[in-house]
Amino acid sequence: MMKPLNIARKKLAFIHTIFRFMFTSKKLVAGFLMVVPIIFCGLFAPWIAIYPIKFGMFEREQPPSWEHPLGTDRYGRDVFSMLIYGIRASLMVGAVTGSIVTLIGVTLGCIAGYKGGLAAEFLKRIIDIFLVLPLLPLLFVIAAAMVRVRFTYFSLALFMAIFGWSGSARNFMSIVLSLRESKFVDLAKLSNESELEILFKEIIPNMLPFIATSFAMNVGWAMVTETGISLIGLGPSNANSLGTMIYWSRMSASIVRGIWWSFIPPSLVLIVFFVGLILIVTGLDEVFNPRLRRITGW
Q1: % of the chain with per-residue pLDDT over 90
Q2: What pLDDT is stored for residue 298 in this prediction?
Q3: Fewest 10 Å CB contacts: which of 56, 105, 180, 254?
Q4: Is residue 275 within 8 Å of residue 288, measured between CB atoms?
Q5: By three-state DSSP, how is residue 71 classified?
């Protein structure tokens, strides 16, 4: 009875230490303060947005006012409501792409890094093939081909995940190759644990910090990529995202004509969110890397 109790106490102490370090890391706290409000706006968009997004609903290009906090665009739409729903769409693309890419990367990385044999060699060659694909031009071609059919942000996220997982898989494979030589893995083998038990009980729990940082960066990459695709007019035409907001402001020459409230809000949200993700990733590195904590003066 004492042994499980001691293990539980050690786990609680570890969790307490992690949370203490997380709140000590100024970068991590700053990152959360930048990212969480944007995520909140995306999750509760129907309750935060003031008006529905409809063409010609209001007078065109009104400056910010009490009625329209961010004014209206050239097509008579409330910019604040567009921004909130745009955050929702962009976050959906980032979350779907980041989840699928991370899941594929962890799965193939574990198989190729730990299993070995012909199957691992085959997976390594597949990863290498996808690594050398010109990802952005390929996504542009796919988006251009899908413009005339029913193209949604969910399908765009799937395409980005299908062709963008190789970098994460390569990173996780390297991590697994390093972890499988650790002493705790050798002890697990001596305890007659199966390969699946070693992966799920020993290796994957020690990969959680890397999984979290990889997911965060994949979300940011997906949102920036979606913005680039929408910015050149290849995004879904029947939906609204931060990228399409910038696209419409570019098409109406808002930048040249000084209609700043049309393009600055979506651009600023993207910058703040991406910088926040970078701070979170850097903060997580400091939390889980003792050497980095010593360097940064913890």
Answers
A1: 18
A2: 41
A3: 56
A4: no
A5: coil
> For 241-293, what is the HEC assignment?
CHHHHHHHHHHCCHHHHCCHHHCHHHHHHHHHHHHHHHHHHHHHHHHHCHHHH
Structure tokens at 167: 């970098």
Q: What is the dihedral of CA 88, 89, 93, 94, to 10 degrees?
A: -30
- Which of 39, 220, 241 minimizes the C-alpha distance to 143? 241
Checking if the pLDDT of 94 tops 50, the result is yes
Measure the CA–CA gap between 260 and 100, rounded to whole angstroms. Answer: 36
Per-residue pLDDT reduced to its tens digit, 272-285: 999 999 988 888 77
Integer CA distances (angstroms), 246 to 195, 228, 269, in order: 49, 10, 11
**Tally of CB atoms within 10 A around 2:** 6
- Single-letter residue type at 222: A
Residue 280 contacts by C-beta under 8 Å, 6 or more apart in sequence?
A: 27, 28, 31, 32, 35, 216
**Mean pLDDT of all residues in 78-99:** 92
Residue 296: per-residue pLDDT: 43
Per DSSP, the residues of 217-247 read: HHHHHHHHHHHHHHHTT-S-TTS--HHHHHH
Largest Cα span, the chain = 74
Q: How far apart are CA 251 and CA 241, in angstroms?
A: 15
Q: How far apart are CA 203 and CA 73, in angstroms?
A: 52
Q: Are 222 and 94 in contact (CB under 8 A)?
A: yes
Query: CB 100: neighbour CB atoms within 10 A?
Result: 19
Query: How far apart are the C-alpha atoms of 134 and 131, rounded to whole Å?
Result: 8
Q: Which amino acid is at 49?
A: A
